[in-house]
């Protein structure tokens, strides 16, 4: 269908399911095991309701905010998703271009299809990019990668901590008839095991021995902000505070890692009051990702104390089906939804959002 018939982010997924080739669709859409956590990421948002306020002047509405010290047009960012070329020949560069046009932050994945430099080369001078890091067993490789990212203007490092081994994504494994992994920049070519799907094939270099000591080491090698991506419980958020990280992403990797991991919006609702009570809330920024498809989801997360929200698959689907125009439209749809929903909620700016606009009673009953 023409792009003009796309009304929301779900529509991109519907078109992608029918239009994408089997391998790309399997890799992008899959979750781990029985996809319970994948579904729960969506369902959990349905248990959070709003408490809208009336009779306020909502003529002017502004969606802009600050994330990690950077001004940006809205409180969501394009999160890191590997293998962009499974969906579009220009891969991650499509996302970079449209992030620039829309003033949205992009997180570059370690396992991008395009090389890191190709992606940074197409960025606008004023555009902000973050870098998602899979820590290589070879510390020297990691160090070079990180220092190169910093030199090229990346402002924050998101260390993925929920993937010492990649989860079983069986849809992806079933499409193991994939011929070549030339989409992938991988130094460990000869260790590729083609029977395990695209995801597992490319991840064998990831260090399984990481501990909290890691943070000290990263502070020595870089001045970038350091965040942990894939924190999944209150205890680990408190550990993260103790270790002085700049932020965490509450995330279960889009339901692709540990089945029965909790959904991030629920962890968020639990952790923020505890941080506030301990006086720790101002010490770091909290982000969440997984299952966000509507501006209402974004707004719920902000009300519950997130600084921003990552969105993954919708942009991949938009890119794979309509290329640059699709990604532009996906962001525009979210921004339009943001403005309308802020008005209906009775707020003018992002910093007015707080827990008073939210009703979590249904959440607690499940
Ligand atoms: C991911 N994600 C991910 N995360 C990461 O830290 N490194 C990576 O290489 C990837 N790769 C990746 C590929 C694909 C196809 C998907 C769908 C996801 C996880 C990603 O950053 C994020 O946590 C989720 O995608 C968020 O969920 P939604 O928005 O896709 O529902």
TrEMBL record:
GO molecular function (one): metal ion binding
Catalytic activity: (S)-lactate + 2 Fe(III)-[cytochrome c] = 2 Fe(II)-[cytochrome c] + pyruvate + 2 H(+)
Every FMN hydroxy acid dehydrogenase domain range: 1-363
GO cellular component assignments: mitochondrial intermembrane space
Secretion signal span: none
EC number: 1.1.2.3
GO BP annotations, alphabetical order: lactate metabolic process
Protein location: Mitochondrion intermembrane space
Cofactor: FMN; heme b
Keywords: Flavoprotein, FMN, Heme, Iron, Metal-binding, Mitochondrion, Oxidoreductase, Transit peptide, Transport
Primary localization class, coarse: mitochondrion
Keyword Heme on entry: yes
Family according to the record: In the N-terminal section; belongs to the cytochrome b5 family. In the C-terminal section; belongs to the FMN-dependent alpha-hydroxy acid dehydrogenase family.
Assembly: Homotetramer.
Protein name (record): L-lactate dehydrogenase (cytochrome)
């Amino acid at each position: 269908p023409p792009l003009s018939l796309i009304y929301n982010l779900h529509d991109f997924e519907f078109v992608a399911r029918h239009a994408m080739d089997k391998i790309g669709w399997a890799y992008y859409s899959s979750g781990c095991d029985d996809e319970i956590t994948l579904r729960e990421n969506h369902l959990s948002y349905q248990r959070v309701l709003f408490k809208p306020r009336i009779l306020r002047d909502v003529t002017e509405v502004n969606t802009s905010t600050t994330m990690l010290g950077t001004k940006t047009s809205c409180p969501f960012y394009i999160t890191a998703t590997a293998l962009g070329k499974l969906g579009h020949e220009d891969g991650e560069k499509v996302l970079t271009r449209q992030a620039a046009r829309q003033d949205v932050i992009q997180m570059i994945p370690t396992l991008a299809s395009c090389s890191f430099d190709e992606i940074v080369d197409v960025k606008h001078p004023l555009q902000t990019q973050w870098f998602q890091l899979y820590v290589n067993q070879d510390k020297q490789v990691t160090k070079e990668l990180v220092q190169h990212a910093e030199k090229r203007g990346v402002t924050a490092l998101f260390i993925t901590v929920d993937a010492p081994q990649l989860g079983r994504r069986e849809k992806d494994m079933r499409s193991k008839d994939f011929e070549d992994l030339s989409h992938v920049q991988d130094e460990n070519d000869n260790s590729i095991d083609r029977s395990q799907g695209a995801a597992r094939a490319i991840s064998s270099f990831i260090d399984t021995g990481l501990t909290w000591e890691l943070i000290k080491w990263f502070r020595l090698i870089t001045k970038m902000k350091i965040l942990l991506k894939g924190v999944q419980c209150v205890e680990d958020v408190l550990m993260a505070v103790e270790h002085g990280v700049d932020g965490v992403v509450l995330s279960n990797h889009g339901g692709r890692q540990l089945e029965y991991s909790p959904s991030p919006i629920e962890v968020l609702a639990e952790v923020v009051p505890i941080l506030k009570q301990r006086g720790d809330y101002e010490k770091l920024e909290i982000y969440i990702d997984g299952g966000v498809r509507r501006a209402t989801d974004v707004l719920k997360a902000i009300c519950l104390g997130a600084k921003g929200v990552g969105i993954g698959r919708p942009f991949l689907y938009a890119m794979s089906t309509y290329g640059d125009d699709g990604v532009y439209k996906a962001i525009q749809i979210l921004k339009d939804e943001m403005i309308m929903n802020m008005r209906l909620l009775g707020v003018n700016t992002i910093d007015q959002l707080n827990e008073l606009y939210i009703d979590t009673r249904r959440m607690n009953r499940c």
